[in-house]
Amino acid sequence: MSRIKEMFAFVAEDSGPDDEGITAMLVGHAWIPMVGADMARVNSLRPVAAKIARRTGKPVKILRFGQREELEVIQ
Fold first, then answer.
1. CA 71 to each of CA 20, 47, 68, 74: distance values in angstroms, whole numbers, following the listed order
2. 36: helix, coil or strand?
């Protein structure tokens, strides 16, 4: 597996235009955030994002974060 150089997140407006959050999907009994480190993962999540947008009536944005910075190493 290669090093993660960028992250993608599916984001939707929460309670107002300046308030947003990462969307999540229910997998089994756990909510999983909709994020990925490559376009294959992003493309696999697009249908879920489309369903969320239709059901909520709010657009879902795909954001790319591209600067890697290690904040801490936990051992």
1. 23, 33, 10, 10
2. strand
Write out pLDDT tens, residues 42-70. Answer: 999 999 999 999 999 999 999 999 998 99
Cα–Cα distance list, 9 to 38, 40, 47, 73, 74 (Å): 11, 13, 14, 23, 24
Do 14 and 59 contact (CB within 8 A), yes or no?
Answer: no
CA atoms of 60 and 20, how far apart (whole Å): 10
Neighbours of 68 (CB within 10 A): 10
Q: What pTM was computed for the model?
A: 0.87
Which is nearest to 36 in space by CA: 60, 8, 10? 8
What is the chain's length?
Answer: 75
